[in-house]
Amino acid sequence: MSKKILIADDDKEFVEILSERLTSVGYDTVIAYEGIRALQLAHHKKPDLIILDWKMPVGLGSVVLKDLKNAPDTKHIPIVILTGLDDTALEVTAKQLGADAFFRKPYNTQEFLLELKELLAIAK
After folding, report:
1. How far apart are CA 36 and CA 122, in angstroms?
2. Cα first-last separation, the chain
3. Is 46 helix (H, G, I), strand (E, B) or coil?
4. In terms of C-beta density within 10 A (0-12 exposed, 13-18 middle, 19 or more buried), how is residue 98 classed?
5. In whole angstroms, what is the distance from residue 13 CA to residue 109 CA?
6. What string of pLDDT tens digits covers the 124 residues of the chain?
7. Domain boundary assignment for the chain
């Protein structure tokens, strides 16, 4: 059975490209363009992993991350922050809030896919 990945990012073009890339290597994807929708889908669809942008409308990534890591039904789901923001303190903050990995756009595709694979293997 394919692993399900929730992509939460407000950049629709980027999300389409990332979703196609993940689908091409065997993952199923669920998409949210707003933070509040990401929370709803995480609780309803129970993804195996979440890729979360830090800055989104209607629910900042920090709020979504904190909520997901504090909820009993989603706290075990690995969360990868993928952001276009270039702020070194942001990675520390994200990890303190419970992020399992942190990538900045543009990112190295091979490293990113390897990290997803490793997180999904650990999360079994």
Report:
1. 27
2. 13
3. coil
4. middle
5. 17
6. 699 999 999 999 999 999 999 999 999 999 999 999 999 999 999 999 999 999 887 768 899 999 999 999 999 999 999 998 888 899 999 999 999 999 999 999 999 999 999 999 998 6
7. 4-122
Is 39 within 8 Å of 84 (Cβ atoms)? no
The encoded tokens of residue 111 equal: 């490293």
In the three-class reduction of DSSP (H, G, I as helix; E, B as strand; rest coil), residue 122 is classed as: helix
| Number of residues written out for the chain | 124
Angle between helices 61-70 and 35-45 (to 10 degrees): 30
C-alpha distance from residue 61 to each of 2, 8, 15, 34 (Å): 26, 9, 15, 9
Sign of the torsion formed by the C-alpha atoms of 29, 51, 108 and 110 = negative
* Superfamily of domain covering 4-122: Response regulator (3.40.50.2300)
